[in-house]
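Q: Got a minute? One more chain.
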Amino acid sequence: MNPYTPSSSGAQTTVLCCQCGVPITPNQVNMCAACLQASVDITEGIPKQGNLQFCGKCERYLQPPSQWILAHLESKELMGLCLKRLKGLQKVRLVDAGFVWTEPHSKRIKVKLTIQKEVMNGAIVQQVFIVEFTVLSQICDDCQRAEAKDYWRALVQVRQKAEHKKTFYYLEQLILKHNAHHNTVQIKQIHGGVDFYFAAQNEARKFVDFVISMVPCRYETSKRLISHDVHSNIYNYKFTYSVEIVPVCKDNVVCLPQKLSRMNGNFGPVCLCFRVTQMIHLIDPRTLNVLDLEATQYWRYPFVSLCQPKQLTEFLVMDAEIVADEDRPFSLGRESSRHVLGDAWVVRSSDIGGQQTHTRNHLGHLLKPGDLVLGFDLANANVNNKEFEELDSKRIPDVVLVRKVFGDRRKRDRKRQWKLKRLPVEGGEAGSSTDGEYTEFLEDLEEDAAFRQNVNIYRDRAKTAVEPEDGDEELVPQISLQEMLDDLRLDDGDAGPDMVTE
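A: Always. Here it is, folded:
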């Protein structure tokens, strides 16, 4: 069988290339692809080399004239930045663009481009070439101001008029968890609070909104004129935000104003603050009624603490029992489900043979004879409070029990297998009183599971497990291993502006 041979009418016509004489399919210029690319260079006018400015502190690239953008290696943001640096690219058609792998430490970025352009009598030529960018180190303006540590545009002053700083420690952990201090230029600790410096007003305003949403407080703002350009009518201001946290902390005994007590169904008025989060959580130890006060309600009817933590007295529980349901007083408010109403007969630890005092408390589920408990002795205290002086003596308890003492503080610290991170605060005072307040805050986290839900707790690998001693009478509250996080550590040289201290 003879093979099929196409007819002469269906055969494809060819011509000779005008340069090299090779038979080719007819086109507009009658030239082969090799000769056409050799005679025409469509990449003319497009630079084959370029420079990129990179800030090693914030890991951002400069996009002229003055904008710094965050772009990772081989990302679309970095590709867009490289293409904008190439002049003459708008005269051709970009078909494809991709990165060519280079060593990460070589300070070189190579981009492979495929372009097309119409030349001689409408012929389209496609060409592939590589552009090499050199990465140059340059500190951006924000990092330069942060390194100088003397430039700021907005200041946030966080203050609390209280002797104990439990609310400050709680706010510090919330700031670390949500990374709210990321844009701070500097953080300074002064008497009564902490100052946060920012390079822009909007960053400071965002931080103020975060603090307001986390703890009950109020704020005031002011601005000071630094300079003024009369020709362009441009004003340069420095802004200051003064944030005041409510002066009530955990374990404070307070006396509510008469109007506030009546508005909430004659709550209290002598009550105990058992937690401070977005609101002030109060409990009446005699009825277990609880009240949640918002910041607006507090500043409308303000009140202060009747006693400070240093004024609490240590009592020894001689007898304790839980109050039966039929003996509980009638109340209309919301009762706490975490506490149990109980009766206790206590005596001062310094006067064991003295007279016993009966008190109704909210620690019925914890107390038993022989326990030590901290309380406020109202019968023998000299209280200077207007609202407290107007109360009927029948409504004032002799002793208000605040919290139970769980063993020796040194043993608890030795058994503690976890730690917290701290803000890099300048000018911190490392006094014994401050260390004692911080230790009490750690004990509060161990004793209250609901209080530590918003706190990141890290496992302390520097401490080894301590076996319980024979003399331990009871088990102290501890945080389980499931609630701890592993502390991720980078190299010591990689510590940046977001570094926190332990």
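A: The chain has ten helices and 24 strands.
Q: Perfect, thanks.
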